[in-house]
Amino acid sequence: MEVGDGNSFPSSSFFYRLILMGMETRSWWNRSRNQIILLGLAILAAWLVRQTQGAALYEMYYWLTRPFHLATATVTEQDKIVRQIDPRINQLEAQLQEVQIQNQKFQELLNYVNSKKQDKGVVAPVIGRSADSWWKQIIIGRGSQDGIQNQDLVVAPGGLIGRVINVTPNTSKVMLLSDPMSRIGITISRSRNMGFLKGKAIEQGVMEFFESDPNVKVGDVVVTSAYSQIVPPGIPIGKVISVDMNKAPAPEAILEFFAPISSLEWVIVYRNQKLNSESNKTSNPSIELPKN
């Protein structure tokens, strides 16, 4: 057998190097195996999340937290109970608040009636009020069957608010002092200067004086006049909040009504003793013209 030179077969040093490389690779794998596996799992997880849009994570979260979940039937039943209780509580709170407000209004009305024991009034609810005539008229739930007559006086806690201008058996129409067509005679309580009241379609009225130089100032109390043709004297109306002495043809004062005309719910109707049966039949009983 012929033996060739060193180029025919690999030398022993080559095999030695291969063995060393294998040992080094195995040692590197042993050291880095865990990191490589974790990196592979991370890449696989990222790929799965992207492909499933996170569904797998949601599923995993669900199963991990399932022991802490309430039974579906329990949650559904609780939801039903809560949905039934909350609106009921809100309803009861609203009803309680309304009852308290109504009780307060009735108490105020009762106190006012008790302060007028010498007069017998008819308590009436406000049952009608339209937006386009809010400051002009109201409808009350008492009529001729309750003894209401045309031109009866209508008051609320604070003072006069208007007069009855139309009566049916069970209802009455009231013209408010705030109606721009309303006219009544009034006087400054302190100085006794007189004039007549005109409505402004708000919670204020205008007093036009008969005198050219009236003694009036802000804060003066205004009551119905003894010279009024359609209302008795001394009924509270309001107080002066501004004065215009240069107003033509006569000085004027702006009044703020005592009674809450904008939020009437209950009123008291008193018989107008000043008017006789003939004056109730006048063609336009709702307007009192100023005296010259």
UniProtKB/TrEMBL annotation:
Name listed for the protein in its UniProt record: Cell shape-determining protein MreC
Pfam families linked: MreC
Ranges in a coiled coil: none
Domain Rod shape-determining protein MreC beta-barrel core: 126-270
Family: Belongs to the MreC family.
Domain of life, per lineage: Bacteria
PANTHER family: CELL SHAPE-DETERMINING PROTEIN MREC (PTHR34138:SF1)
GO biological process, one term: regulation of cell shape
GO cellular component: plasma membrane
Entry keyword set: Cell shape
